[in-house]
Amino acid sequence: MSVTHFTAKEITDLETKSTTPRFLHSLFGSAAITALALQWPTTAWPFVVGCTLVAAYSMFCWSSCFHETSHQSICGKPWVSIMLGRAIGTMLFVSYTAYREAHIRHHAYLNKPGDWELWPYSDPTTSLTFRRIFCWLELPLGFVTSPFVYSRLCFSKNTPVKNPKVIKTMRIEYAVMAVVWAAILGAVTWFSVWVPFLMAWVIPHWIASVIQTFRKYTEHLGMQSYDPLLGTRTVIGSNLITRVCTYINFDIFVHGPHHRHPKIAHNKLVEKMDNYQQDNPDTKYPVFTTYMSAIKHTLPALWNPGVGMNVGAPAPKKEKWLGADNFVTDVAREILSDRDVSKVHRAS
C-alpha cells in the first residue's frame, strides 16, 4: 500500500488542526444505537424514529471519516489513518486499500474514463439506459452498489491496480472482512437478537447509505469539467446547520478545493476557495451556500446521470503524469493537461 507523503508545511497543518471535536457526533450516535438495541427507555415510535435518524447520520459522518483516512490526513501519523480506515471499511464492506486506490484515481482523473470511483457515470462506454438504472438503484441500495464499485479495483480483470502487493493487501482485507462479519452474524444468530440488530444497525446503516449517495451525487453528478474547481459542486454554508454538518464531516462539502489540493488540511479548504474566488472574480464557480441549493442544482442530472464525456465534455487530453499512484499537492499543476484546466487556474 502506498503512503501519502506530506511536505513539512502540510504535516504542520495536519498536526495543528482540531480533529477530535469532529467526532462528537459519535457520542450521540452511540447513545442512539444503544437505545435502539436495548429498546430503552421507550419503544414509542417518535423516539425510535429520532434515534434511528441520529444513528444514521452518525454512521454517515463515519463514512466521511473513512474518506479522510484514505488521504491519511486524520493526523500527521499515517498508521492512525490506516488502522482507523480498515476498521471503518470492514463495517462498510469496503476494503480500505481498494477505496484508497480508487480515490487516488478519482482525484487524478476526475470525471474522466479513468475515474473508477465514479463508474459507471464516468465511463463513456456505458449506455444512458444503464446509467439511469444504476443511478436509480444506487439511491436506495447504496450499501450494496458502493462496495461493488470499489471491489472492482480488486477483482476486475481490467483493474488499473497492477502492483501485486497492493492486490494481495486488498484480498487480505476482504478475507478479514468476511471473517469479522461471519462472527457478527453468527453471534446475532446464536443469541437470537435479529430484531435489535435490525433496528440498531441494519436500518440506520441503510439510511446512512442513502445520505451518502446523495452526497456523492451532489458533489459530482452532471458535472462536465475536468478542472477540479469547476467539475465539482462546493458547499460553503451560510447557516448554522450547514456549517455544523460541514464541520463534523471534515469539511468534505467544500469539495472543489479539496479535489485540487488533496493533501491540504480540511480546515484550510474554505480559505482556499475564498482565495480562488477573490483572484478570479469573473469565473462562475459552482459554489452554493446551502446544501439544499446544491441538491436542487443536481436533480436534473438524475435523468441524465453522467460526468465528463457522458454529459458533453470533449475527450480529455493525455495527463502530464500517467499512472498516478498517490495523492499530489496540486492536481491541476502536477497531473492534468493544461487543456483540461481552466485558463485562469493554470498559473495559480
Automatic annotation (TrEMBL):
Keywords (A to Z) from UniProt: Membrane, Transmembrane, Transmembrane helix
Transmembrane portions of the chain: 23-41, 47-67, 79-99, 130-151, 172-191
Signal peptide positions on this chain: none
Domain Fatty acid desaturase: 44-289
Any GO BP: lipid metabolic process
Name of the protein in its database record: Fatty acid desaturase
Organism: Gimesia algae
